């Protein structure tokens, strides 16, 4: 029974992530200010403006949205905020 619950949780989480990721236009329109390091979500995901991980930055993460030529862009994980292209957080996942 608990395995079924985990499976449903993963399905719902995946669908939510896909919805957020494909909603880049909405995220671009609503993102307004640079993400503060004091933001509770940023703290929880260990977000930093300058990555110290080789080959891992917000610019090459699957969660980043918007115009790649901009230094600060919307991220599916931090609604209404912009993250630095050079940034990093614990939820980093390689873009496909």
Automatic annotation (TrEMBL):
The keyword Iron applies. Pfam families: HIPIP (PF01355). InterPro entries: High_potential_FeS_prot, HIPIP_sf, TAT_signal. Keywords: 4Fe-4S, Electron transport, Iron, Iron-sulfur, Metal-binding, Transport. Residues 29-96 form the High potential iron-sulfur proteins family profile domain. The keyword 4Fe-4S applies. Belongs to the high-potential iron-sulfur protein (HiPIP) family. Specific class of high-redox-potential 4Fe-4S ferredoxins. Functions in anaerobic electron transport in most purple and in some other photosynthetic bacteria and in at least one genus (Paracoccus) of halophilic, denitrifying bacteria. Homodimer. This is High-potential iron-sulfur protein. It comes from Lacimicrobium alkaliphilum.
């Amino acid at each position: 029974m608990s395995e079924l619950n985990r499976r449903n949780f993963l399905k719902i989480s995946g669908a939510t992530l896909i919805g957020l990721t494909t909603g880049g236009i909405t995220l671009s329109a609503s993102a307004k200010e640079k993400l503060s390091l004091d933001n509770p979500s940023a703290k929880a995901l260990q977000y930093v403006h300058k990555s110290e991980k080789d080959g891992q930055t917000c610019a090459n993460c699957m969660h980043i949205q918007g115009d790649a030529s901009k230094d600060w862009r919307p991220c599916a994980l931090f609604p209404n905020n912009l993250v630095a292209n050079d940034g990093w957080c614990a939820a980093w996942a390689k873009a496909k």
